Amino acid sequence: MVLYYVIGAVVGAVILIYLIIFKILGLRVIDSDEVAVIEKWWSMKGSLKDSIIALNGEAGYSPDLLRGGIHFKSVLMYKIHKYPLITIPQGQIAYIFARDGKPLSPVQTLGKVVLEANNFQDVRGFLQNGGQRGPQRGILREGTYAINLAQFIVITPSDIKAISSGNKQERTELVSMQQTLAARGAFSPIVIMGNGNESSDMMGIVTVHDGLPLEQGEIIAEDVGAFHSNFQDPEKFLELGGRRGKQIQVLTDGTYYINRLFATVEFRPKTVVPIGFVGVVVSFFGKEGVDTTGADYKHGELVGEGCKGVLEKPLMPGKYAFNTDAGKVVLVPTTNIILKWNKTETGDHKYDENLTEVDIITKDAFEPSLPLSVVMHIDYKQAPWVIQRFGDINMLVNQSLDPLVSAYFKDVAQTKTLIELIQERSGIREKAVMEMKEKFQKYNLQLEEVLIGTPKTTVNDLQIENILTQLRERQIAEEKKITYQKQQSAAESEKSLREAQAIAEQQSFLTKSKIQIEIEGNSGAALASKAEQEANQIVALAKANSSRIRLEGEAEASKETNVGLARAQAIDAQVKAYGGAQYRVIQEVVDKLADAIKNSQVDIVPKTVVNMGNGSSGQGDNGSSTVMDTLLKFITLDKLGVSLEPTKGPAVTAQSIGEVDNSNKDEDTKLVEAAGTDSKEFSSGEAK
To answer: What is the mean pLDDT of the chain?
Structure first.
């Protein structure tokens, strides 16, 4: 029994000691990685009325925390809420909801940042320096914090850290807030990182949800500078005059710890102006600009940078972090644009996707459709003018160029037959380029070329197809003609090739023969040179002989001349001595006859005389007188005193007389001529 009393006494003593130490004295042991919130049950200063945190010792939650160590807080007055330190992992963000503080102003959605609160670890400093209840602009980044969960509720991706008050409505609101933040990706920093790919190189469009609203008429907030660390310092942003709403400033590559309750970020690709294009900026933000087009331009205005409207200076090729909520960039090609009026063909730019062939009516009443292509160019300096006037290139093509080009070629077709339209296409094209250039210039466009296709017909229109078939057949015939000429030329070339091959095969023989020809040529040249020298020698000798003969002849002629002159003078003297020329002739004849008889061996008197004819006539056998008879007649007549003067009767000339002896004919003739008897005529009657 005594033992039971002893044991009971010991147990009672232990219980008493426990009650004294842990209940009455309130012994509390706080680990170094823990903190504890003190909740006061009662106080001589009474209870709190409109707040949660008892700054002045009232009953309620104390602003101060119990840190690691041994503390004595009697359970008769205090309730201790112990929990681990708040730790935010690397790469995460935690959000704060303040349960006590001043209420938010009507223009606020978040409580302002109180620097004295030391990242929400100093509740007293927070409340005494104007801290506000509700969601806070400040955030908790990675690290470990001693947060009073009675004042501040910490929201993380996986938990809502708070001392439960049993208020279901508050808990529901906190869960909704956590879900909203999770949907925005708010528990991680904003990371913008382009990899050089145009489709994935992003930027951030910022929308601020706190601060003063935008001014009337504005759709986007202006840039307030870079001192707010790209929206990471909400208080500084608002101090600089930042307003809620879409921001003109964008976020580029980098990592940003932004409170997603304060500002949300929308990722959009950067604006890329490719090579061959310029970007015409249509700004929705800015002040009222001054028109730079001049008074003569009536289609609109162009303004400078920072103004609303179409900016006069386009963006050159490159990549731009352009806020597409503050304006738009219209890409205008600066390379040649080919527009095809052909429903089966569309360019990559899609500007001509609504264009079809031009329906025309020719002079001879055919109705084909004419496919066309127009090559044009837009000067990059004129690109803002084009966009300001037409809005974009599609509207330019569909509302202006299509009617313009169609009407022009319809007018041309009415002046041409179908055949002329096909055959004179080149001339029509050149004329179209010249005439349409001026019209395009009015639209700030530069026309480069107009291309005309072959007129197309409907399926059932065989007449046009027949005409086109005839033209094709003509062209085929021309092509065949050219082909035959080419074949003939090829055959001739082949012939020349074969001849060249044959010559090449006989080249050695040709070389030998060529050398032999050169040898023979050299030998012939030598012989020719020798012959030429001999000929020159012969010519020289001939010239010498000729000169000698000429001189001898001239001497002989001179001699004969002198002899003849002497003889003539002698004869003339003899004639005068004889008393007349006739006597001199007779004398000459007699002398010649005497010489002839003397030198000849013929008998003067014939031994036998045969007379076959009229003997009285004194003629020979042939009826003509002999020389002797004639001489005797002359002598007889002279002796009888018959005159020998010439008469008009039949003439007997010295020529007839001289026909005695053919052997002496020439000498007799010379004698007669020398004596002048060639001019004497005698009458036959007188001679009888």
So the answer is: 81
Buried-exposed string 516-526: b where 16+ CB fall within 10 A, e elsewhere: eeeeeeeeeee
Which residue type occupies 266? E
**Beta-strand pair 309-311/302-303:** parallel
Residue whose pair of structure tokens reads 């945190």 in the numeric block: 53
Give the residue among 446, 444, 447 at the shortest CA–CA distance from 302.
Answer: 444
Which pLDDT band, with edges at 50, 70 and 90, does 301 fall under?
A: confident
Instruction: Enumerate the β-bridge partners of residue 328.
Output: 282
pLDDT tier for residue 151 given thresholds of 50, 70 and 90? very high
Q: What is the DSSP string of 608-672?
A: -----S-GGGT--TTS---HHHHHHHHHHHHHHT------SS-B--HHHHTTT-GGGHHHHHHHH
Q: Which of helix, strand or coil describes residue 72?
A: strand
Residue 126 CA to its chain's centroid (Å): 73
**DSSP secondary structure string, 412-426?**
HHTTS-HHHHHHTHH
pLDDT digits (tens, 9 = 90+) for 205-259: 999 999 999 988 888 999 998 899 999 999 999 999 999 999 999 999 999 999 9
Task: Give the number of residues written for the chain.
Answer: 688
What is the SS3 assignment for 227? coil
Band of pLDDT at residue 201, cut at 50, 70 and 90: confident
Rounded CA-CA distance 649/685 in Å is 8
Amino acid at the residue 250: V
CA distance 447 to 377: 6
Which residues lie below 8 Å from residue 471, measured CB to CB, with a gap of 6+? 419, 422, 423
For residues 302-337, one letter each, b for 16 or more C-beta atoms within 10 angstroms of the residue's C-beta and e for the rest, the string is bbeeebbbbbbebbeeebbbbbebbbebbbbbbeeb
DSSP E strands in 363-515: the ranges are 369-370, 372-377, 446-452
Report pLDDT digits (tens) over 507-529: 777 778 778 888 888 887 888 78
- What pLDDT score does 240 carry? 93
Q: What is the pTM of this model?
A: 0.59
Give the mean model confidence (pLDDT) for residues 284-313: 81
**Which helix or strand (DSSP H or E) is residue 329 part of?**
strand 327-333
Residues 453 and 357: their CA atoms lie apart, in Å, by 10
The secondary structure of residue 307, as a DSSP letter, is: B
